[in-house]
Amino acid sequence: MSQAQSVNHKQSRMKAARSLFAALIAITLAGGAAAHAQVVKGVGTPNTIPLWGSGSMQGNSIMSQSGGNIKVNGGVTATSNISGLNISGSFFGNGSGLSNVNASLFGGMGPSGFAQLGTSNVFGVSQTIEGNLNLTGSLNNVLILQGNLANGSTEQGANVIGGFGGNNTVPGNSVASGFLGATIAGGGGFVGVAAPNTVTGDWGTIGGGALNNATRFGTVGGGTGNTASGFIAATVAGGRGNTASGLTATVGGGNGNLASGDNATVPGGLLNVAAGDFSFAAGHGAHASNSGSFVWTDNNFNDALLSDTAPNQFVARATGGFTFYTAPDLSTGATLAPGSGSWSTLSDRNVKANFMLVDGEAILKRLAALPIETWKYKAQADDVRHMGPMAQDFREAFGLGEDEKHISTVDAQGVALAAIQALYHEVSQKQEEVNQLQDRLATLESRLAAIESSK
């Protein structure tokens, strides 16, 4: 190619480039003008908010639209507070990332159906809790729950403390540190003095009242100033100032009573003491000091305590007398009258039947043949002696009594009275014979004197 041809060729190429450049500018300007009137199209998915990539490429963002809903595949982060946000429809997910939520409804329920932090909560509907509810502190300052406790003896348990929770000046009900399994149902407070209920042993229980104390496995039902301090399982049901300090000892109530023996019992009353093991004391001022004794007193106290003197005694004071009935209609029984030292058995004719006269002479003969001995009961000391017949011989001789092993006092007295009557009749008869003999003797002596004087 000649030089002239080469120059023409270059000029032609430059002209063509200028034309192409002018066309590109025109297209660009035309496209920009059209962009204001047309939807921008790219490679994104319909109904998905486009995301500009590098250069002029468009792709899909994490947000998409379906009808009136917007779906976000991922989290939403706001760099400042959002106000005026209105979300309608359903909310899905566990909400683990939400904070500072204040909604008028959750699941169709208002704020009264949910606990709200930082404010007092009043639930307007019933709540159901499934699983464990761990609490620290108290409910309305009247209930404290302490769970998952253990002591040095490998025992495990929980404490429930109800009632007065105390204030800045007055202590509330409490379980001493280190103890578990305790329950204080209520009570405590301020009644002129601080009056908390306290448990100072594992598994102690107080139902209510004030100033009560229970130790290990001890129970105080209520009242005031009562103590169940036995080594294990002592009980004070109520009353005032009562103490059960023996092993499994019991005080039912009353005032100022003490059950200090093991398994001892004071059911109530005033100033009674059951100090012996398995002893019982009741009334006013009864002291059962020995094992197995039963002591009961009336209200005629007069500063005179009534006490037993040996183990396993039954001691009672009834200054109005004792009466024991053995029939449902109170027709038969025995009475120890006030101030008396002997028993009176009921012997009214109106309570008796099947009357039969007895043959006193026959009774006297049988009594004369009845063996009478001195003897002792095997259960008594050797130096104790008694006198009387054997029950078997008495039964065989007279056929009286309930059985052949007992002699009723009324039967023994009856036999003695019948024999005495027979003896009286016999003596009377003999006396009559003596009188007749004396009369005959006087007559004979008179005749003899007349004969002698006539000589």
State the major sheet: 9 strands, parallel
The low-confidence parts are: 32-39
The largest beta-sheet arranges its strands as 6-8-10-12-14-16-18-20-22
Helix run count: 4
Walk me through what this model shows:
With 455 residues, the chain is of the alpha/beta class. It has a domain at 356-455: Arc Repressor Mutant, subunit A (Orthogonal Bundle). The chain is built from four helices and 28 strands. The protein has helices at residues 3-35, 360-369, 391-398, 409-454; strands at 48-52, 58-66, 69-72, 143-150, 156-162, 174-175, 183-184, 198-199, 205-206, 213-214, 219-220, 227-228, 235-236, 243-244, 250-251, 258-259, 265-266, 273-274, 280-282, 286-288, 294-297, 306-307, 314-317, 322-325, 333-336, 343-345, 373-375, 386-388. Strand 4 (143-150) and strand 5 (156-162) form a beta hairpin. Helix 2 (360-369) packs across helix 4. The longest helix is centred in the C-terminal third of the chain and has 46 residues, at 409-454. The protein starts with a helix and ends with a helix.
Short description, anyone?
The protein is of the alpha/beta class and 455 residues long.
Features:
455 residues; alpha/beta; Arc Repressor Mutant, subunit A; 4 helices; rod-shaped
